[in-house]
Amino acid sequence: MITISVIVGSTRQGRFSERPAQWILEHLRKRGGIEARLLDLRDFPMPFFDQAASPATPGRAPYEHEVVKRWTAAIAASDGFVFVTPEYNYGPSAVLKNAIDWVYPEWNRKAAAFVSYGSAMGARSVQQLRETAIELQIAPVRSAVHIPVATLWAHFRGGDVDKGLAELETQAQTMIDDLLWWTTALKTARERNSRTEKGKLMRPLSRIARRTRGQSHGPITRLMSPSDFGRLLKPFVFLDLFDTQAKPFTGLGLHPHSGIATLTYVAEGSVSYEDTNGATGVLPAGGLEWMRAGGGVWHGGGAGEQGRTRGFQLWIALPPELELGPSESVYLGPERIPNDGPARVLLGSYGTATSGIKAPSPMNYLAVRLKAGERWSYQPPTEHTVLWTAVGMGSVLVPDELQQGELVAFSPSSAAIEFEAQFDAEFVLGSAVPHDRDLVLGSHSVHTSTEALREAEARISAIQTRLIQQGRL
Ligand SMILES: Cc1cc2nc3c(=O)[nH]c(=O)nc-3n(C[C@H](O)[C@H](O)[C@H](O)COP(=O)(O)O)c2cc1C
Questions:
Q1: For a substitution probing ligand 1, which of 19, 88, 165 has the most ligand atoms within 8 Å of its CB?
Q2: Could you read off the pLDDT of 414-450 as tens digits, one per residue?
Q3: pLDDT band at 127, cuts 50/70/90?
Q4: Domain 208-466 = CATH 3.30.470.20
Q5: Which residues line ligand 1 (CB under 6 A)?
Q6: Torsion angle, CA of 202/113/434/330, rounded to 10 degrees?
Q7: pTM for this model (two decimals)
C-alpha cells in the first residue's frame, strides 16, 4: 500500500487551493491500492524556519516544535505527493516554501506531482518547485495539471469551478498514472535491502539523533525517562536495563502504576512476579511480563533464581481511551513469543510474526540476537517515525558502534536501520507512531491530563487500603 499526500499550498482567506486539492484527492481515492490524504497547511501553522541546524544536517537533534513534529511525521508517512500550488510573485506561496524547508530526510527519494493555477496557470510556480524538489531529493514527475485562468476566475466570481476542473480529467489521470508509477518504483527501491557492488547502501538509513548510557542505580540503569529521551520517543517513556549477578536482589515489593503499560523482558536468568490481579510466578529467560496498568494496579517482582538476571523493562504511555481503563496482566513463557529470523516480536508485528499482546497504540517492540558478524535490518512501517534501540549484550554497528548499555534515538523518519554484530549481541528495538499528548507525571504514573492523574491516584489509594487490610502491605 502506498500513501499519497495532497498538499494544499495556500492558507489565505478565500483561497482557491482547496478546490483543486479536493478534486485531485477524489481522483486519487478512486484508484485501488493507495491511501490518499489531504495535508492542509492551515492544519500545520509552523513558525518561519528559525533553527540553528538545517534539516539536512546529519545527526541533528529532532526539532521540538509540536506542529513541526506533526508535519515531519506526516511527510515521513507519505510515499508520494501532489503539491497544489498557487503562483505568488512568480513562485510558490511563502507558506508552502516554509513548510517544505522544515523537513529534509523525510522528503528524500519520493515522487511528487503538481497542480497549479495563476495568470500563467501557475507554470512558473511549478518551475521553481521542481528545482526545489531536486534539492530535497524528491523526483518531480513530468506530467502536471495547470488550471486555466478561466477556472480560477470562476472561483472568485461564483462561476462553475467543477465544470472547469472536469475539463482537465485527462491531464489529471495522466499525472496520477505517472505519479503512482514513480512512487511505487521509489518505494520498492527504498525498501530493498540491497547493496551496490562496492557495498554502498542503496537506501536511506535512519540516523542517530541522540545517544545515552543513562543513570545507574545498583543493578538498574535507567536509559530513558520522560524528562529526556521519553519526550522524544513517546509513547515509549521509560526504559530500564537490569543486570544483577546473584541474590540478594529482592527487586521491588508491591508498588502501584497507572496510565502506562510495562513490558518486562527477561533476556537471561529469571524474574519473579506478583500483582493485585491475583497472578504470581517465575518467568524464565526469553519470557515476558506485560502489565497494562490502566486506571491503577499494584505489582512487584525481583530476581527469580540464583545467578545472573538480565533484561529490560519498558514503560509505554497509554492513549486517553486506555489510561483509566481496566488493568491487564499477561505472562508469556519463551515458547509463546513469536519470531521472524533473529527478531522476537514482543509487541506489534514484524515479518511473519505477530505478538499475542495487543499493543495500546501502533508500535513494534522487538528483541534481537545476532552472532558476531551477522547482519540484520529493520524496516519500520511508514507511520512509525519514532525509532530507538538499546543494547543489552555485546556491540553492534548501525553503522556507528553501539555498545552494551547504550540507548540511541534515531531522527524522526521511517527509514531502515542496518545492524551488524561486532560480537555476539542482543538488543531491543522500538518503533511507533508518535504519541501526540502531553505527559503528566505522578510518582508511579504517567497520564495525559491532571484530571486523569488525580482519578487514578484515588483508585491506587483504594487498592492500597485493601492491600493493607489483607496484610499484603
Ligand atoms: C501575493 C500574491 C502574489 C501573486 N502573484 C502572482 C503571480 O506572480 N502570478 C500569477 O499568475 N498570479 C499571482 N497572484 C494571483 C494568485 O495566483 C491568485 O490570487 C490565486 O488565487 C492565489 O491562490 P490561492 O487563492 O489558493 O491563495 C498573486 C497573488 C498574491 C496574493
A1: 88
A2: 888 989 998 899 999 999 999 988 899 998 899 999 9
A3: very high
A4: no
A5: 10, 12, 15-17, 86-90, 118-120, 152
A6: -70
A7: 0.56
